[in-house]
Amino acid sequence: MKTITYAQLLNKAVELAGRTRDKILLSEAAMLRGFFDTELRSIWNTQIWSDLRVDPEAMTPTARVLSRREGASNEIGDILGIYTGNPLTHTVWRDVAWEEGNNTFTVAGDVATVWVEYLKPCPSLDSVADADLPAYAVPAVFVPYLAYKGAGELLATENDTLSARRIGQAEEKLEEAMMRNVVPERLRRMRIRTARPAFSSVM
After folding, report:
1. What are 47-87's pLDDT values in tens digits?
2. What percent of the chain has pLDDT over 70?
3. Number of separate domains in the chain
4. Cα 152 from chain centre
5. What is the pLDDT of residue 190?
6. Cβ contacts of residue 65 below 8 Å, gap of 6+?
7. 36 in Cβ contact with 9 (< 8 Å)
8. To the nearest 10°, the Cα dihedral for 139, 141, 144, 145?
9. Domain's final residue, options 87, 119, 151
């Protein structure tokens, strides 16, 4: 996944608002942090983004239970599919149903090994320590949208016309990113959840 730092994202938004990088108030920086956090959570689930998708990973259930590895660098976000074989290398495989648990998921049937395809979990910018935020990695695919939308927010009380233009440009950037995004045929039936239900299974 290609990324840029949060500091670079913030600088892009400030420059698109027609300011130099040192011309942003602490209150505005705090506002943008919360704004970017909300927007990131929203667009993260609009599509099965290829930049966020992890290729099917072989996992071995224990009593049919697998961990989401919450908090780890390889934490499992939204599950896209669970299979009896790797769809990328196996010619014969089938979907496996599963149920959600507390930081776990349980697969149906006695399968020794399953391949789990999932999205990286959406980060929370608000939970990142202030000292770590400037270097925090933001998915590059979302940066044009976030930068233009952030500029529009900065301009909201200064220049209504330019604010509206930047917000419109942000939507164009998001549409362009969606058009470039490639979703594998096996996943085109999927709809990404904005919240995890108590029960999930493949369709």
Report:
1. 999 999 999 999 999 999 999 999 999 999 999 999 999 99
2. 93
3. 2
4. 22
5. 57
6. 101, 104, 105, 106
7. yes
8. -90
9. 119
Phi, psi of 95 (to 5 degrees): -70, 150
Q: Quick one: pLDDT at residue 193? A: 43
Question: 65 — phi, psi (to 5°)?
Answer: -105, 140
Output the CA torsion 179→144→192→63 (10° steps): 120
CB neighbours of residue 32 within 10 Å: 24
Tell me which of 103, 119, 135 is where a domain ends: 119
Radius of gyration of the chain (CA): 20
CA distance 110 to 91: 21
**Residue 20 resides in a domain:** yes
Q: Is residue 175 part of a domain?
A: yes
Instruction: Check residue 161 and report its DSSP letter.
Output: H
Q: Which amino acid does the sequence have at 52?
A: L
Q: How far apart are CA 179 and CA 144, in angstroms?
A: 14
Q: What is the pLDDT of residues 34-58, one digit of tens each?
A: 999 999 999 998 899 999 999 999 9
Distance CA 42, CA 17 (A): 22
What is the per-residue pLDDT across 128-174, written as a single tens digit (0 to 9) for each? Answer: 999 999 999 999 999 999 999 999 999 998 999 999 999 999 999 99
Query: How many residues can be counted in the chain?
Result: 203
What domain range is 158 assigned to?
3-47+126-180
Map residue 148 onto helix, strand or coil. helix
Determine the average pLDDT of the residues in 108-126. Answer: 93
